[in-house]
Amino acid sequence: MNQRHPGVLRHWSDRRSLLFVTLTLIVLLLPLSLSLPTFLQPAWIAISSLFCFNACIVNHNHVHNPVFFSQRLNTLFGVLLSLAKGHSSAGVIEASEASP
Length: 100
Known about the structure:
mainly alpha
C-alpha cells in the first residue's frame, strides 16, 4: 500500500534551503536583467560568491538527506543546486570518495 506523507518536504526546516537556493539563483541572474554599474560589480561578485558557497552547503545536506519525499522533486532540486553552484554534485561525490 502506498503511504501518503503529510507534505512535500521531509523536514519543515528545509524551507530555509529552498529560500537560499532561490535567492542564489536570483542573485546570479540579476546582471542578466539589470545593467550593474561598474562600482557595484565587486560587491555583486562577493555577494554571489557567498550565496554560491551556501548552495554548496545546501547541496551537501541534500546529498545526505534529500529535501523532498518525491524522487523527481529531489532530482529537479539537484539540477537547480548545480546551476546555483556552477557544477554538478557528481564531481564532488567522486572527489570525496577518492580522498584517503
